[in-house]
Amino acid sequence: MADTLRMDRMPHIWCPGCGIGSEVNSFADAVKRSGIDPKKLVVVSGIGCTGRVAGYVNFDSIHTTHGRAIPVATGVKLANPELTVVVFSGEGDLAGIGGNHLIHAARRNMDLVVICNNNFTYGMTGGQVTPTTPGGASASTTPYGNYEYPFSLPFLADAAGATYIARWTSMHSRNVTQSIEEALLRKGFSFIEIISPCPTLYLRRNRLGDGVDQLQNYQDNSILKHGADTRETAIDYQGKIVIGKFVEKNKPTYLEASDKCSIKLVGDDYQLYGKTIPEREAEEKAEKERIAARRAAMAAAEAQEQAVAAKPRKTSAPAAKKAAAAPRAAKKAATKAKAKPAVKKAPAKKAAPKAPAKAAKKAAPKATAKTKAAPKKTRK
């Protein structure tokens, strides 16, 4: 992670048990695995706990105002279509004040990757109810339970026109990595929702334990359904969570649709950013080849690391023999340990009388002399 994060800004502000850290780790791993050029990656975020991701990652990034992450990302993509633009923010920022931008970016099929950390609360501003807070859950603005109907973000994104939609929890880190990698390598509006614990405000206020308890809840209540109908992805309070990749389809992006319209009007003389269509297609093909080469190199490096890690196990036959002989040696040592005390005790019992025996030998002549002398006196 040292190459991915701005280590001079550590430690981060996220609380113990928060899921954003594992999401950033999955994101960094996905960028590496995708093979895209990190110098052509831009991360845009809004306000909130998740909005701080843009300030910690070691890529070109923009930390925008509340709710404006998607329009800023749209401007970046239109200014330079060669860039891969990722929006990394929370559900309050994206579906609350920024909800209008979310649905229109999906409607236009902007070539963006939107990663939404959904923790059901405004974690940085006091724990207010958000557009996704489940019914019945307590928040600072609904202390007796939420009575509003929450959004199902996959259903919202699907209805608006997103071409790639997935949902996971922060516990499913490998699946999160895979979905982000897929989204980075495709065109169109991709929306990935990650259900994440907020231990400080949401869990504590609702007396749901800590982050580990909530991860256990995710494990117990997650239902994997790839291709599920997004109308059936609503989340109840501490209820079942439908996860998986729900939507993956292709249709012209906003720029491709704009190109098509302009070509009809202008003809073959039309150029986007000073490049003809064949030139742009050739550049895209060359970039795909470079990405494929980087992915192959990374896969080879991982295979080599695995081989090196497994090599000692395969070649260490002596170690295996030692390990196999260890139980026998242990038994022998145990028997010796039991036998040794008995050997020591036996001499100890014999040694005790030896000392008095020597004293008796030395004392014996004196005793006999006295006994002999006594009778002589009596005789006289």
What does this structure look like?
The protein is an alpha/beta fold and 380 residues long. The chain has helices at residues 20-34, 53-56, 69-79, 91-97, 99-108, 153-160, 173-184, 199-205, 211-221, 254-266, 277-315, 317-379, and strands at 41-45, 60-63, 84-90, 113-118, 164-169, 190-195, 222-224, 241-248. It has twelve helices and eight strands. An eight-stranded mixed beta sheet has the order 2-1-3-4-6-5-8-7, sandwiched between helices. β1, α2 and β2 (60-63) form a beta-alpha-beta unit. It starts with 19 loop residues before the first helix and ends with a helix. The model is unreliable at 342-353 and 355-380 (pLDDT under 50).
Present the secondary structure layout.
Layout: H1 20-34, E1 41-45, H2 53-56, E2 60-63, H3 69-79, E3 84-90, H4 91-97, H5 99-108, E4 113-118, H6 153-160, E5 164-169, H7 173-184, E6 190-195, H8 199-205, H9 211-221, E7 222-224, E8 241-248, H10 254-266, H11 277-315, H12 317-379
Parallel strand pairs: 1-2, 1-3, 3-4, 4-6, 5-6, 7-8
Antiparallel strand pairs: 5-8
CATH class of the largest domain: Alpha Beta
The largest sheet, given as strand count, sense and whether it forms a barrel, is: 8 strands, mixed
Strand order of the largest sheet: 2-1-3-4-6-5-8-7
Distance between the termini: 113 Å
The CATH architecture designation of the largest domain is 3-Layer(aba) Sandwich
Poorly predicted regions: 342-353, 355-380
As for the CATH topology of the largest domain, it is Rossmann fold
Shape: globular
**CATH evolutionary superfamily of the largest domain:** Thiamin diphosphate (ThDP)-binding fold, Pyr/PP domains
Task: Please give the domain count.
Answer: 2
